[in-house]
């Protein structure tokens, strides 16, 4: 079974062909990071325009690299939610046109489900059920993976996502976009005990996250020091930020696993590439005897392989769409 996956939810135009659910035959990503750096973040209008310019070449290269044609495909999968609406529309409409002209089934894929599926590409033995932490610039969720196509959200952020907190703290320190990777590098040379940062909690659900207060605390700390002419040690501050975010994500995830009886824990999303998050969560799982899974770093960011992988399982479950499929900017996992 060969599935083409198309991803365009933010600033990466990506496509991939996956064979039999878990083998990547080809994967092509056209990133826009350098263009968005000058603005300090993704500009939705620019992202949409670049998707329009790049998507045909990306898909064509993907098929060429896999040494197949459209006729060899069993289905075409595409991210339809959530994400930047203009960016999503490019991918959805391209996939619809491709499916109609090639007479192939069209498979809708939820972006977060795609991130979770990266673990299947890394670990052939992994099967549901298990608990997965999905952390990225736009999402921070703890999700019960009940089956390949059924999910239940256990916890989520009430405000900023973990990746957003990394990026905004990094911007306040003068690092370029995307900031999370700069904090990670800077943290390697820092002392994480130098700054005592808050671990915010929210009422109503013990597994929900809140990163807005942490972000504001760091930004105020930086601005106050600048006003007083004091130069903070940014290596130490980066290490403290990374340690705090990693601890918050780990504490909530482990607590949810223990409460719900899970002994298999996975992590996914862009923030899962962060060395502090990977090591802190891994050590916590090892201490408790949990099986721990994390995707290869090359699969942590947005990519087409995750959409092709999840699309494969959706296709096997009979989840397909017709020409009425539309892009949706915000959609809970439980509303799939």
Please tell me about this protein's structure.
The chain is an alpha/beta fold. The protein has two domains: about 1-115 and about 300-335, ATPase, nucleotide binding domain (Nucleotidyltransferase, domain 5, 2-Layer Sandwich); about 130-295, ATPase, nucleotide binding domain (Nucleotidyltransferase, domain 5, 2-Layer Sandwich), CATH 3.30.420.40. The chain is built from ten helices and ten strands. The chain has helices spanning about 35, 45-65, 85-100, 110-120, 160-170, 180-185, 210-225, 235-260, 275-290, 305-315, and strands spanning about 1-5, 10-20, 25-30, 75-80, 105-110, 130-135, 140-145, 150-155, 265-270, 290-295. The strands form two sheets. Strands 3-2-1-4-5 form a five-stranded mixed β-sheet, sandwiched between helices. A hairpin with a 5-residue loop joins strand 7 and strand 8. It is globular, with a radius of gyration of 20 Å. The two termini are about 25 Å apart. The mean pLDDT is about 95.
């Amino acid at each position: 079974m060969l599935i083409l996956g198309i991803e365009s939810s933010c600033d990466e135009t990506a496509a991939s062909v996956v064979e039999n659910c878990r083998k990547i035959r080809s994967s092509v990503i056209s990133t826009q990071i350098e263009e968005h750096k000058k603005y300090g973040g993704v500009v939705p209008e620019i992202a949409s325009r670049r998707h329009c310019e790049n998507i045909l070449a990306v898909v064509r290269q993907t098929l060429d690299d896999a040494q197949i044609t459209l006729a060899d495909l069993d289905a075409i999968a595409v991210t339809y939610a959530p994400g930047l609406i203009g960016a999503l529309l490019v991918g959805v409409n391209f996939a619809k046109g491709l499916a109609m002209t090639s007479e192939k089934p069209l498979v809708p894929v939820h972006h977060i489900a795609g991130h979770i599926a990266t673990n299947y590409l890394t670990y052939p033995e992994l099967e549901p059920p298990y608990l997965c932490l999905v952390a990225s610039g736009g999402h921070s969720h703890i999700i019960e993976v009940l089956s390949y196509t059924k999910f239940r959200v256990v916890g989520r952020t009430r405000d900023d996502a973990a990746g957003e907190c990394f990026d905004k703290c990094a911007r306040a320190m003068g690092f370029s976009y995307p900031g999370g990777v700069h904090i990670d590098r800077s943290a390697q040379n820092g002392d994480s005990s130098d700054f005592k940062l808050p671990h915010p909690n929210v009422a109503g659900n013990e597994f929900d996250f809140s990163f807005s207060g942490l972000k504001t605390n760091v930004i105020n700390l930086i601005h106050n020091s600048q006003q007083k002419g004091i130069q903070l040690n940014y290596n130490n501050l980066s290490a403290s930020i990374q340690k705090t975010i990693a601890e918050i994500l780990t504490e909530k995830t482990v607590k949810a696993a223990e409460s719900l009886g899970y002994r298999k824990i996975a992590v996914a999303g862009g923030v899962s590439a962060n060395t502090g998050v990977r090591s802190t969560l891994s050590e916590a799982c090892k201490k408790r005897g949990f099986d721990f899974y994390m995707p290869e770093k090359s699969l942590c960011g947005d990519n087409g392989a995750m959409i092709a992988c999840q699309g494969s399982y959706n296709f096997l479950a009979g989840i397909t769409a017709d020409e009425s499929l539309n892009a949706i900017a915000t959609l809970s996992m439980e509303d799939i």
